[in-house]
Structure prediction request, 772 residues.
Amino acid sequence: MKKVLVLGAGQLARMMDLAGSPLNMDVKAYDVRSNTVVHPVAPIHVYGDLAHGIAEADVITAEFEHVAHDTLATCEASGKLLPSSQSIKIGGDRRLEKQLLESCQVPNAKHVVIESKEDFEQAIEQLELPIIFKSALEGYDGKGQWRMKSVDQAENIWQEMSDFIAQSKSLVPQGIVAEQMVPFSREVSLVGARNTHGEVAVYPLTENHHTSGVLSVSVAAPIQENLQQQAADVFAKLTEKLNYVGVLAIEFFQVGEQLLVNEIAPRVHNSGHWTQQGADTCQFENHIRAIAGLPLGSTHLVRPTAMVNILGEDTVPNEVLAIPSLTMHWYDKEKRAGRKMGHINISGHDELELAQRLVALANILDDQAFPDLAQFAKKYLSRVSK
Amino acid sequence: MKKVLVLGAGQLARMMDLAGSPLNMDVKAYDVRSNTVVHPVAPIHVYGDLAHGIAEADVITAEFEHVAHDTLATCEASGKLLPSSQSIKIGGDRRLEKQLLESCQVPNAKHVVIESKEDFEQAIEQLELPIIFKSALEGYDGKGQWRMKSVDQAENIWQEMSDFIAQSKSLVPQGIVAEQMVPFSREVSLVGARNTHGEVAVYPLTENHHTSGVLSVSVAAPIQENLQQQAADVFAKLTEKLNYVGVLAIEFFQVGEQLLVNEIAPRVHNSGHWTQQGADTCQFENHIRAIAGLPLGSTHLVRPTAMVNILGEDTVPNEVLAIPSLTMHWYDKEKRAGRKMGHINISGHDELELAQRLVALANILDDQAFPDLAQFAKKYLSRVSK
Prediction:
């Protein structure tokens, strides 16, 4: 049995454990708030502190990119951390992310890094309006993002932005990345894995829908070969550059027939949860396989599958369980408005059947709790009925 | 979160937990040897004795039919046991099983219950040779079964049989069921579920292959409608008669176009492990749904799928993981000759692809550890290639 320590004790570590147990993996989770190693599914069981967890583990990985840098350094010093601290940090800092994209010549939105008033003015000069300003480090609750549609807003935005930077408590200096807003037709993401032997496998591109800035629905279905190839090429370039090991997700804006990278996440990803039901091997198992040096499992799409996030709710009507092919994935978390509490996976033998089942699901679920689902399902049904 | 206590702490309880966690079920397992309630996946964690486990549980179920009768009585007295102790006991006593089959007028092998020398003589008179004698209660290591091909063997067999009965330490009197051997073409089994509301759902019939009397391979693929219907009818009759709640498995002998019941198991079953990968909802989740009063999940076959048991081995070559659609299911048990240590699930988009993958698997696995697999895979490939 191989022992895996996951930095972070949320739903991603939980699902790594559920996928890892059948593969004979002993997965434990490091809860950064309590500084203890816990059972990922039954966190009531505590196994000591980080040092002990590191000593016990065969391999260490992360379920989120905002791990404290000293923690990453300690883990990396053990020689067990995969992916590398460099890869994890890139996911947590938009400046590093942009540097990586540029160094790999990967298409992305035109941007300027802002660290001073001069940079800010240059950004307005160099980029076309509208511009979106994003904090380089973690933002939260919609903070750390500003949209500029007219230069009249410049003074106000600069004021807010410089206050925001000044208030940062991060050990790493906060900064801003200004991006020219992209007139995209949709957002898609690619989840894939690269193992310790350099073997790569990517899942089909997933189409993502957001509600108030949070992912609400992902759909995986057969997709145009040219888009899939573009995304796979980007995945190969980035992961090779980083000598990346594990699952990595890339979010893209689709503009015409071109994909521009929006951001990358050095971990299993919400837009890959559908793989638990719709793919030969799920992203959680492939992450474990990758970091354990095992062959990657096939990422083949078994049948069209959608994932619906459950936000801020700790129950849904039991009747949804009667919908064929529907499985619930609760995270056993305390209810909090907007919090990711679980997700629903649902499949069909073709997209029409999937769309019909999504409509049936939306009819049962509460409109307030799933505000955009009914509309999405109806549109999707009309699209695939043609 | 609903709390489930499973009587038995083996792989079936383990897989109920892995399937139950995403459904927001807290599954615990009662280890009869240590008389403690433990975590089904991490049995290092102990939660007290049976009385405590019963008090904490919302619903109690069993992963094996040979639970001590006083334990069943205690659990039933709590009003939480599903299926009923009667149903569980029937699975543990061939006499009760035969009574049930007869009372439901379900086709099965001609038989005589033996409790005395007179019964024994009557069995030889009433049944055609060859006859198989099976102990009514649990046999082990091939003990408790005798085959008679000629009446010359009668004296010897009776001697062994009466010694065997005399040595029984069971509180329930041991007995023997004599069965006329059935010239079957193959063995198939039906796994299905019935929930607290009387809703029934059955999986497609599975074809089973045994090696030295132990299940080695099960294959689930589209099957003749008339056989499926016969089996489903038997399932409906038996479960209604018992007011059964949970998953139940029925093993059949196929003779021509008729199915004769061989035996029933009042629980999730080894021949249903393929459902983890090949069905809309796996048998473990459906068992939990059934006893928790939730709607049953669809039992639809997503794609042809086989299950290969791992007996007496605690490792297989890593390269098997490179076969598409293949997943490992280890039980984290100590290695012991012949012991069920895990299983492999493998699928194909059709039977031809499945058969090709089984051949690839057999080519990698050790012949000694999987003695009949290569031959089975070759035959299966030749059958589906036609």
Q: What stands out?
A: The interface with chain A takes residues 1, 14, 18, 21-24, 39, 41-42, 45, 280-281, 285, 289, 294-298, 300, 302-303, 318-319, 321-322, 324-330, 332, 342, 347 of chain B (CB under 8 Å). The mean pLDDT of chain B is 96. The domain at 186-385 of chain B is CATH 3.30.470.20 (D-amino Acid Aminotransferase; Chain A, domain 1).
